[in-house]
Amino acid sequence: MTIPAPSAGTNFIRTLIDQDLASGKHQAIITRFPPEPNGYLHIGHAKSLCLNFGLALHYGGCCHLRFDDTNPVKEEQEYIDAIKADVRWLGFDWGTHEYYASDYFEKLYGFAERLIEKGLAYVCDLSADQIREYRGTLTEPGRESPYRNRTVAENLDLLRRMRAGEFADGSRVLRARIDMTSPNLNLRDPVLYRILHATHHRTGDAWCLYPMYDFAHGQSDSIEGITHSICTLEFEAHRPLYDWLCDALAIYHPQQIEFARLNLTYTVMSKRRLLELVNEGRVAGWDDPRMPTLSGMRRRGYPAAAIRTFCDRIGVGKSDSVIDMSVLEDCVREELDRTAPRAMGVLRPLKVVITNYPAGEAEQLTVPNHPKEPAFGTRMLPFGSELYIERDDFMENPPGKYFRLAPGREVRLRYAYIIRCDEVIKDPASGEIKELRCSYDPATGGGETPDGRKVKGIIHWVAAANAVPAEIRLYDRLFSVANPTADKASDYRGTLNPESLEILGEALLEPTLAAAAPGSCFQFERLGYFCVDAGTAPGRPRFNRTVTLRDSWAKMVGAES
Q: Among 36, 113, 154, 363, which one carries the catalytic annotation?
């Protein structure tokens, strides 16, 4: 497994850690990445993942992978397997440090009893709606529950009976006994445990009493000896509760640090909404290449190194911001420009017959696999009298400054000869252009122009005799607006981009691509970067467009403005 080198840059979290190490507060750094196994990881999780594992690498410590599996209703083994695959794909390794909150259920329950014994927790019979009503508002204090002053003995008895399964879901909860007048709503007697009669994917039916995230999180950090518990900014208001619980239990106290989460344009970063898109069939699963999930990006052909570069480039701060999708796409282009071999493919074929090419003959052209990297080597490209070019590379009545093929005009075929269009063959019934009759200049092979004439247009092509039929899927941004959830009164689904997927079933590729392995990425010259789809079939490859050669969306926005 390739472990990426940590960034040499700094940020406020590294500054805090440096201070802790210098003061002797910690001898080693232990971080954790604690996903909930209720969905697939998305690009927002990648920022946290790269940060936590990157810090551990930078300081020679370790990062724990801990699954916060405290809600059996929404969690599945499928999600756990997918999360582990994504972490490994990004290049990180947790070694032997794979943990689950469910590993600590017995110990966490013991903490709950300890709080009751100290008079710091009680069993409450209010319903969820009543608890919300009693909680108060940002401007009004909350009211104490009528069950707040139960005795220690009564609370212990009720909690043990809750664990034994005597009570129905929602009938009772365990709450911390803190301060119903606190300006921080998270300290107004928060719920610590709730009853859920549901089978857990790891513990089965051993439990029907499950800890809330705020309770399990900090105590799990403590059990594992985490030095720095790094969370996104929405947990800042929860930090006083994190600290209160560690202090109330008199256990080891990690330091919680918050950073701004990643917000990306033209997508949604809510697992709930992503799950809706999957369940409603609006996408073809969690790994649909239009999804912001890591599995979707992997299937689309995004390199793991590009995602790491992106996370490093956007930095770590304390203020929320929105990153434009083009920043991520630029990272993808930069990485693929360096690593992707070149190939030729025609997405919308138009036949060309070279009338003066020797009948029945063919030749093999030696062409580079990468124009900037000689180490990529060369390949053989067949050439003959019948070719296919891109339909967009011909216009019968071209405008000014059009340098591609037109009647009576010349272009150079990439790596091959200069040709001139002599005749246009059309379908008599529809008037559609079916074929071009062209002539070639045999003296211009390999880029040579002995007579010195200049031909501005260079187009790509494939030889008809050796062309490989393929299906091409042109993926674009999933949403048509930068912020799909900006209008709270409207359904975000209404901003789905109807042109986010176009399937081309008649594409033709050069023969070297016939056996390309799933996951392989290529630059189709002049067209963009494409990846062999995981579901490709033998003999008829399927390619997904990873990203265009340039940011076409920026051009569109510029044109509109």
A: 36
